[in-house]
Request: fold
Amino acid sequence: MKNPFKNKTDEELKVLYEQYKEFQKTGVIPDNELGKIRDELCEKLNSGWHVMMMQYLLEVIAERWI
Reply:
């Protein structure tokens, strides 16, 4: 599966990461940009979407900024 975060701008990644941090606190992803990616991954992966979302997001951040 293609990484849905790869083509995001730096600003978009910052917003998505903030939404991810909020998800870590609350356990809920509202219908925001991260929620759209969640829905896409859930549709394709079913039960493993959250692990892949975390891996994809952190992979792109690490490649770009570290």
